[in-house]
Amino acid sequence: MMTLRKNLDLFNTIKALAGVNDFTTEEIQNLVDLSNRRLTMAYNLSPMWDRYVVVGEKRSISDFEVDGTGVYDGPYKKYGKFQIGSTGKYKNFYIPINRFESSLSSTCFFPASSGKWRFGGLTWTLDPVTNIVTSSSGGTFAEQVDVNADGSVTEYDSPASVKQWNFLSNVTVLRLNEKQVIPYEETFDNFTSTDTRRLKTDIQDFIRVHKNKSFFNNSSTEFDFYVDSIGANVLNGNFTDNEAYVTYKKPILNDQGKVIDNLTGSANQDIPSEFFNYTAHAVYADFLRMDGQHDKAAFEEQKAEMFLATELERIDIINNNNSLNHKFSTYVNRSTR
After folding, report:
1. Within 13 A of 203's CA, how many CA atoms are on the CB side?
2. How many Cβ atoms from other residues are within 10 Å of residue 252's Cβ?
3. 241 secondary structure, DSSP code
């Protein structure tokens, strides 16, 4: 069972180890900083901490990346069909994978009545049954310039193929790079709730990427990938639905880049029990070093490492008995299909 301890428990344990009931305000802040450092160190020592591993979660994968616009940059994906004027013909409709920022909430690529690609902001809705996007209003930031020799519109399946854009408003540079990337951050639409857009859990580290639901009943093609500042770039993938199943590690840090903000209990905050004893003894060791007591600090550091080694050994034993972090390379699970 994955239990939690409180920040005040950690503070009381450190005080007990130090034999000190009162710390100065400056010392308490130092202890908070040292605790965050040690908690992060423990978290980083393994990709397989039970509490932070998410297995086979469905994630969107991009068709291309937008670059050069500033606020509208990022990976974009197919999201339904959009009618070309009143012709009855449809083209794909593209939106940012992460629409959490207000500037990206209505941003999209859509076809004009002429068939040219446009980049802009629309007020639109998606019918989840027909997969058709309808728009009531909006503006255009840029429009495709490319035409054929006879003046007819050059038809492209994707806006990433457009060679030249005419900039109308808001942007002066627009670069589209074809990229199959799973970003660290993603929003999703919930069609059964008034809260229609929600943010998925951020990805800290990518562990494995599969084509279908992984570690369930049937085998699933697994993909190699490399990671950059945007996310996991999938190699040799063939995705019809712009979706992959990702096993990843959740972040431990909050929005302020910390695990805890205080130790005094002024705000109750949770600490993973598997990191608790290590952090208490390690922070006490750090405090002893600050006081110049290096021999005592080394002894406490050994105790801290013993507690952490015990937790890591438990993970190793579990991993040796399952396949979550082990790859078995065969023709079946490595081929693109």
Report:
1. 30
2. 19
3. S
Q: Please tell me the predicted confidence (pLDDT) of residue 137.
A: 85
Q: What are the C-alpha distances in Å from 219 to residues 37, 206, 232, 328?
A: 40, 20, 22, 11
Q: Which of 243, 183, 249, 235 has its CA nearest to residue 211?
A: 243
Amino acid at 37: R
pLDDT computed for residue 246 by the predictor: 95
- Residue 196 CA, chain-centre distance (Å), reads 19
3-state secondary structure of 319: helix
Nearest residue to 250 via CA among 208, 202, 210, 209: 202
The predicted pLDDT at position 194 comes to 62
What pTM did the predictor assign?
Answer: 0.87
Q: Are 169 and 152 in contact (CB under 8 A)?
A: no
- Provide the residue type at 257 as one letter: G
Read off the pLDDT of residues 135-161 as tens digits, 9 standing for 90 and up: 888 899 999 999 888 888 888 999 999
Say if CB 149 and CB 28 are below 8 A apart. Answer: no
Give the integer Cα–Cα distance in Å for 266 and 124.
45
Please identify every stretch of the chain with a pLDDT value under 50, giving residue numbers as ranges.
328-337
- What per-residue confidence (pLDDT) applies to 331? 45
Render the burial of 38-58: b for 16+ CB within 10 Å, e for the rest.
Answer: bbbebbeebbebeebbeebbe
For the beta sheet containing 205-210, the strands, ordered from the edge strand earlier in sequence to the opposite edge, are: 53-60, 243-249, 205-210, 222-223
Of 125, 72, 121, 62, the closest CA to residue 97 belongs to 62
Q: Would you state the pLDDT for residue 323?
A: 57
Q: Which two tokens stand for residue 322?
A: 């399952």
Which residue in 292, 281, 272 sits closest to 46, CA to CA?
272
